[in-house]
Amino acid sequence: MVGRGRPRDTEIEAKVLDAAMTEMRARGYDGLSVDRVAERAGVAKTTIYRRWPSKAELVMAMITELTSAVPFDPTGDPRRDLGEFVAGIAAALDAIPTTLVADLVAAAAREPRVGVGVRALWAHRHAAVSEAITQAQADGLMPAHADPRIIVDQLVGALYYRLLVTGDPIDPAYVRALVLSTLGPEQS
Amino acid sequence: MVGRGRPRDTEIEAKVLDAAMTEMRARGYDGLSVDRVAERAGVAKTTIYRRWPSKAELVMAMITELTSAVPFDPTGDPRRDLGEFVAGIAAALDAIPTTLVADLVAAAAREPRVGVGVRALWAHRHAAVSEAITQAQADGLMPAHADPRIIVDQLVGALYYRLLVTGDPIDPAYVRALVLSTLGPEQS
DNA sequence: TTATTTCCGCTACCGCAGTAGCGATAGAGG
DNA sequence: CCTCTATCGCTACTGCGGTAGCGGAAATAA
């Protein structure tokens, strides 16, 4: 019952994603045209839409492939782990064009399927960092008055806000200051 | 040297913004078509584009009219003022459709002119709240280890992040918890 | 009055995202 | 073997944002 009709050509996925990546790097999100991707991949446009129901989801698939290789290994030192967590997100945001981040956020807010995908991208890291915060609070290493999930909102939200709205740079100094502002000063 | 050629019809601005508002409420940002706005306003599409160079800027003009009537009067009590600041932004974000917020953020990141407009919308409040934080720190009412601008990033960024990415609700309880997390517990 | 300049409405056009429907094809089940 | 079904490439289409260029209208400057 599984493989009735003609099977899908397994090479098409990779060819399309490669072509999309090339177009993306050359022209950005807006400049990426599905027609051109199809032409470059040597594939019909309708074949692309059979796999990814919209341009946003096609690009989502690209990004997912890209960022799935970003590890996160908590060491147990919460201050260090949070710093690496924030720095890792900052690096990921820096690795792709700002306009793409913006369009992905917009697509996530507009289309539920994309939203689920974007959230799933970060779910693992968020859970790990929430746990690290809880542990640190239990150990008295940081103020206990705050909900860990809110702290995650503050950390990640500040990065997005700075990148997308204020447009100010996200450099290592900012990441340090942000973590310091959230955790409070060292209190051994 | 000022008014050479034929003067602009001053009624057109209001007619177009009204029509755009109606379409916006009925169909959202994506469903808003400049062709239909032109037809509803009884105006040529090119006349709209002569005033606003893109659909994003047309909608920006609408929003600017809407949110320009949101006051902010610091009382001097920093905890209360910050709470009202955050609640005011939350209310403004709640008053317009989420997808519109998302598209505006995307447009702000993509087109510099829109970015300037969005930032100008909030510049006054941001400055006021930064000042309130600085004053509160000087008075010893809240921890002095953080840069006020970073605190603003954390507060506003958390709201945007929750609204656009995680999709969780922004209710008064969340606003309270967010302010508490940022300021720390009461220390009179 | 006449020349100049800008606006307005209009038609036509471009490239784009996304859809419908067509023959042809490649496999699975009978 | 033949039938059934899903895929592929293709053409054609819709609605959209945005642009170019036209004739005509409304103002100012000479």
TrEMBL record, chains A, B:
Keyword tags: DNA-binding, Transcription, Transcription regulation
Residues of the signal peptide: none
PANTHER family found in the cross-reference section: HTH-TYPE TRANSCRIPTIONAL REGULATOR RUTR (PTHR30055), TETR-FAMILY TRANSCRIPTIONAL REGULATOR (PTHR30055:SF148)
Domain of life: Bacteria
Domain HTH tetR-type: 10-70
Residues within the DNA-binding region(s): 33-52
Annotated organism of origin: Kribbella karoonensis
Protein name: TetR/AcrR family transcriptional regulator
